[in-house]
Give the backbone structure.
Amino acid sequence: MRPYCDGQMRHAGPVGSSVSGVDDSMLDRTARFRSLMARCATGVVVVTTVVDGFDHAMTANSFTSVSLDPEMVLFCVQKDSRFHEAISVAPRWTVNLLAADQADAARWFAERGRPLERQMQVVEHTRDEDGIPALDGSLGYLSCTTEAIYPGGDHSIVVGRVDRIVQGDHAAEALVFFERRLTGL
Ligand SMILES: Cc1cc2nc3c(=O)[nH]c(=O)nc-3n(C[C@H](O)[C@H](O)[C@H](O)COP(=O)(O)O)c2cc1C
């Protein structure tokens, strides 16, 4: 169950029904969890990588820094996403910190079923030293190497070591996710 997303419950029947071992109190608890987590304002990133010549990208708000020495960061990725398959085998990836005017890019890279082979064509980007796409106009990006992938329920927790730090426009404001809305800070 994703605490982000579109706010729609994904249980199989109307509230009040019992769905294979999931009772009403659990549904209510899930709704309350999602509702409260939606009030935890976060920044928004797009994680990018390349596998077998194909670009992969995913919007994420589970990104945070982990360690200063060495510099490490993490994000969580849903196990049933295509990006999970990609990040499980890609040793290197880039985290793009989105600016306030990049809400369209955040929506695009969160859209299920978008064509993999053309997904980067709709956003301006350049390639970092590893050939991984970095979004133009972001607050900046980090190029990372996977350090570990830990289980995290229906997600995996991907921890990366920071190889390169590229600053973007210092004057740009951040894109923020709050109450399931993408908004400027
Ligand atoms: C603002 C926002 C934040 C998101 N954060 C995450 C996240 O941290 N982890 C995750 O797995 N999915 C997150 N998603 C959902 C993914 O972006 C989306 O499911 C994924 O791109 C689906 O595409 P794929 O199956 O092709 O990988 C987020 C979506 C939005 C709109």
User: Anything to note?
Assistant: The longest strand covers residues 140-152.
